[in-house]
Batch of 4 targets.
Target 1
Amino acid sequence: MRFMFFIYFIAAGCLLPLHGQQVLSVMSAANNQPVISPNSLATIYGANLAPGAASAQMDANGALPIAIGGTSVSIGRRVAC
C-alpha cells in the first residue's frame, strides 16, 4: 500500500504544471466522455486555467479563436486549433 501511494505521489508531482494550473480532466464536448476525436471540440476541467472568466464568439467564417482571455491550449508543443 505504501509503495503504490509513493508511486502515485511522484507521478502526480511530475504532472503538475509550474504556474499553478491544475487540469483535472479532458472530455469530449459532444458527449462528456474521456475519448477525444480528431477535429472535435474538447472540454477541459480544472483549476486556475485562466486569469478570469471569458467566453468565445465565432468569427464571420464560423471559426472559434485559438486563445480566450489570454489562455490557449497546446498539445505536444503545438497550438490546438
Target 2
Amino acid sequence: MFGIEPGEAHASSAEAIGDVTVLVCKRSAVLALAARHIDVARQLWEITAHELERSHKHSLLLILSAQERAAFLLEMAGRSCVRSGVELPMIMHPPPVGSGANPRTETIRV
C-alpha cells in the first residue's frame, strides 16, 4: 500500500523493481470500508506498520556498514519478481591506510 499520508501532498514516490499492478482508491472510500469492517481496519494497520518498519530500515541505509547494505540489497532482490540475480560490487581486502594502494574491487553475483 502506498500513498497513505495525513495531508494532501505525498511525501515520497515509488518506482517498481518488477512488474506491478496498481489499484487506485479514494482515501475516503478506504476509510469508510475500514470503519464498517474491523478486519479491513486491522489489515490496514498491519500493512501500515510493516511499511513504517521498512521505511525506517531504508532511512538507516546511510549509516549501515557495507555488509548491512548488501543484506538490504539482497532483501530487495528477494522481493523482486526478477530472478536473474543481483550483482554487488564489493571492495575486497582494503589496503592499509596511507599506503597509497588502490583497493581491489570485485563483483559478487548472487
Target 3
Amino acid sequence: MAPPSKRSPRSPPDLPTLLTPLPQIFAQTQTSTANHSKNVALLRKIQEQAALVTTPRKKGPPKETGELAFTEAFVACLERCLPVKKGVAVADRVLKFVAAFVQALTKGECIE
C-alpha cells in the first residue's frame, strides 16, 4: 500500500516541478508521431494542473500565474524546436503535435 500523500487534494502543485517534463515531451514529439496522443494527454494534464496555481491579490480575483508560466514554457519549447535545421520532417512532427494539443484544448472547452 502506498504511503498517504502529504499534500491535501486541493493544494496546487509545485509549478517548477510541474513544468519540468515539457522539454522531454517536445523532444519525443520530434522523433515520431506514434507517441503524440499520449503526449497530448500528458501536456493537457500538466496544463490543467498549472491552471490551479494562482497568486493572491489585495483586491480582485487571484492572478493566474500557473497558466501564464505554462504558456511561457510551452512557447519557449516551441521556439527551440522549430528553428533547428534538422530537416522538414522534424518541424512537421512538432507542428502536428501542437495542432493535436490545440484541438484537445478546444474539445475540452466545448465539453465544460
Target 4
Amino acid sequence: MPVRGAPSTRCSESGDGWAATGRERSADHHQDPTAQDLGAATFGADSSGDLKGVTDLGVHTSGGTGYLDRNTESLWNVGYATTRHGDKMTAYHPAGPTPFEAGLGIAVGADL
C-alpha cells in the first residue's frame, strides 16, 4: 500500500463524538486508548489526504466512516501496523472536543 498524503490535524468539528462519552460515563471502562501510560502505539484516524476520517465508533458503518471501513485513515494504519510497516502509519494528533462533547461538558485529550 502506498503512503497517502501527510497527516492532518483533527478539527474540533470532526472525529468520534461518542468516544469521550463512553470513557466518562461508562461504569467499567474509563481507559483512553491514546493515554501514554497505556503504552500503545497511536496513529491517525481523522483523515489524511484522500483517506476518510473515523466519525463513528463502529467497525463498519453505513456511512463508511467506521474504524475498519474502506478508504479510512484508520484502516490503512491498522494495515501498516499489522504487516510490520508501522513506520508508514500517519501520526495521531490530539484534538479538542467535538461540538457534541463540548455540549455535554466532557473533557477530552489533554483535558482528561
